[in-house]
Write a structure and sequence with these properties.
With about 180 residues, the chain is α/β, with parallel strands linked by helices. It contains five helices and seven strands, in the order βαβααβββββαα. Strand 4 and strand 5 form a beta hairpin. The longest helix has 14 residues. The protein is elongated.
């Protein structure tokens, strides 16, 4: 059986790993990941930005090679642009080669993650407004924080709270 995973971050790669452990050699797994890396530990972003560690690569939980050694093939820099569910075919583009590709599957896992919700407020596209969801965004945000005196964090989910902790805001009494 051939399984394609669309999305090579935590949820997709966790599903792929579990499936491989369960079915062993009875399954071929290929994961397509839009970014240049699989399995980013996004919860590390606030701590990298807050300078609790310096190497951004530490947020990558497993490399392409580590997954390949487990029998899971990860194709990075590949975005799926269309799915034909009737013929079980995916269509995509490889950003490294700018070539379009087609692949077929028996089973499909779609795990593309979340996109930060835009608030449709004036100024939210300003150069000093960031989302903390990708390795690239974390590196950019950290480089820009050298001149910042005030930070506003919008969102109280896990990563928003971890940003508060990372910046020392969790220790201050907020009224």
């Amino acid at each position: 059986m051939k399984v394609i995973v669309i999305g090579g971050s935590t949820a997709g790669m966790t599903a792929a790993s579990k499936l491989k452990r369960m079915l062993k050699n009875d399954v071929e797994i290929i994961a397509y990941q839009k970014f240049k890396y699989p399995s980013l530990g996004a919860c590390g972003i606030p701590y990298y930005v807050g300078k609790h560690f310096d190497n951004a690569e530490r947020m990558i939980a497993r490399t392409v090679e580590e997954f390949q050694n487990r029998g899971i093939f990860v194709k990075t820099s590949c975005e799926i642009t269309r799915i034909d569910f009737k013929t079980k075919t995916i269509y995509g583009i490889n950003y490294n080669t700018n070539q379009e590709f087609i692949d077929n599957y028996d089973k499909l896992i779609i795990s593309v993650g979340a996109t930060p919700r835009r608030l449709n407020l004036a100024g939210e596209d300003a150069v000093n407004v960031f989302t903390g969801t990708t390795l690239e965004a974390a590196i950019e945000l950290r480089s820009r924080l050298k001149k910042v005196k005030n930070v506003t964090i919008i969102g109280g989910g896990f990563i928003g709270l971890e940003f508060c902790e990372s910046f020392g805001l969790a220790r201050k009494k907020i009224r």
